[in-house]
Amino acid sequence: MFADTDLLPPDAILGLTKAFQDDTRESKIDLGVGVYRTVDGRTPVMQAVEKAQQLVINGETTKAYTPPEGAPGFAKAILESLLGADHSAVVSGRALAAQTPGGCGALRLAGELLTRTGARAITIGAPTWPNHKPLLNMSGMKIEMVPYYNQATCAVDFESFALELRKLGPKDVVLLHGCCHNPTGADLTNAQVDVVIEIALERGFLPMVDIAYHGFAKGLDEDAYIVRAMAERLPELLITYSCSKNFGLYRERTGAIIMVGADADRAVAMRSHVYNIARGMYSMPPAHGGAIVSEILRSEELADMWRTELAEMADNVRVNRRLLVESANKHGLGNRLAYIQEQYGMFSLLPMDEVEVAVMKSDFGIYMVGAGRINLCGITPANVDYLVQSLASVMQGKG
Ligand code: LMR
After folding, report:
1. Across 82-224, where does the E strand assignment appear?
2. What is the pLDDT of residues 67-90, one digit of tens each?
3. Which residue's alpha carbon is nearest to atom 2 within ligand 1?
4. Distance CA 229, CA 207 (A)
5. 303 C-alpha to center of ligand 1: Å?
6. Mean local confidence (pLDDT), 39-61
């Protein structure tokens, strides 16, 4: 059966972690996979998660199957945390959620749902998270990449992006990043989101918002602007949500798909297909992570603790952005890297090409994804100058 099966290369992001671990150089720096880390390189379990987990374990009386919407209370808690309990789409029942195995599970289900309902293609601004493509392609969706980020100006090229959106029609889907754009850190402004809503109303395409870093940009409410405004003003919307980063539940594979229909009946119909597709792929989501999230969000005390910890993590990433820019100023790269302080979330894209990224790895032991995506969490006061000096020597003579 498998005599001719070829050997695939390691995953572009996950494979980097293994390569970093195997590197014996003491000066090596891991700017790869999007996992939050403290200054001493740890990814601790959040205290709110630890406490909620204990309550979940203490209260657990069965390991019988969870229902298709996931752990009890999870779907409602996520809807209310993301959209708000008094959002019209939540109150009217137009917005429904179901727990998924991570944000990846949500993306794959969304792709399957769109393929099943006859969507023509999904338009994505370039560059995007490398795993968007396989997740959506493998569900049968055709992907069309359009310009989003201008590598020369290190900023969103909204004019070109909007121009492409104006060519789409009612059978089209547009994938948007909720906040903390991966890999660029360059988000749409609220005013640009409003323009996208106007174009969607005019052209009839369906926006699908992938939000994997809720709370890491400006705050939980501010980061939800795009989904709240779209759920309010558009007849239909899909949202894929990850609890990996903001709850630190990476390995528990906890996420959600949120379906907003034209009315409550349409939303129930959409959800019935999501359940049916999930049943054909993995039956039902794993319970543990969902139970933890639900426990946190229903307790005022735990929710407060979680919000404080999340705000601290987001602050620490901002501190690292500042560290990098200050060091760049010292080492003559100030005007090349100043934009990094204006961006959001764990990632920014350095103005490098794949060859330079390979040299950073081979000559300096500095690991970054693809064409220069860095996870700011890997920067520390101790390594930032070595990083910037290495960058300066690789980027020497450019621009
Ligand atoms: C990343 O972009 O590094 C993370 O979302 C982890 C992953 O699965 O790729």
Report:
1. 95-101, 121-126, 143-147, 149-150, 155-156, 172-177, 206-211
2. 999 999 999 999 999 999 999 999
3. 34
4. 12
5. 25
6. 97
* 129 among known catalytic residues: yes
Give the active site residue among 223, 245, 306, 361: 245
Domains annotated on the chain, with CATH: 12-44+312-395 (3.90.1150.10), 65-298 (3.40.640.10)
What pLDDT digit, counting tens, does each position of 342-366 carry? 999 999 999 999 999 999 999 999 9
Q: Report d(CA 318, CA 340) in Å as an integer.
A: 10
Average pLDDT over the chain reads 96
Provide residues with CB under 6 Å of ligand 1: 13, 33-34, 129, 131, 182
- How far, in Å, is the centroid of ligand 1 from the Cα of 33? 5
Identify the active-site residue in 129, 157, 172, 223.
129
Q: Which of 239, 165, 148 is nearest to 201 (CA)?
A: 165
Mean pLDDT within 111-123:
98
Q: Which pLDDT does position 397 carry in this prediction?
A: 58
Angle, vertex CA 388, rays to CA 9 and CA 332, nearest 5: 135
Query: Using CA atoms, how far apart are residues 257 and 240, in angstroms rounded to an integer?
Result: 5
Residue 183: asked if its preceding bond is cis (omega within 30°), the reply is yes
By most ligand atoms within 8 Å of CB, the mutation choice from 129, 177, 374 for ligand 1 is: 129
Determine the residue type at 124. I
Question: What's the confidence (pLDDT) of residue 371?
Answer: 85
Nearest-CA residue for ligand 1 atom 5 is 34
Please give the Cα distance from 166 to 145 (Å, whole number).
14
The atom number, within ligand 1, closest to the CA of 104 reads 8
* Average pLDDT for 24-32: 96
CA distance 82 to 368: 31
Q: Are 253 and 225 in contact (CB under 8 A)?
A: no
The single-letter code of the amino acid at 178 is G
Whole-number Å distance between alpha carbons of 27 and 42: 17
Catalytic residue among 30, 172, 187, 210: 210
Residue nearest atom 9 in ligand 1 by C-alpha distance: 13
Our answer to whether residue 210 is catalytic in this structure is yes
pLDDT of residue 398: 60
How far away, in angstroms, is 85 Cα from ligand 1 center? Answer: 30
Q: What six digits make up the tokens of 196?
A: 């996208």
Q: For ligand 1, what atom is nearest to the CA of residue 242?
A: 5
- Shortest-distance atom of ligand 1 to CA 34: 3
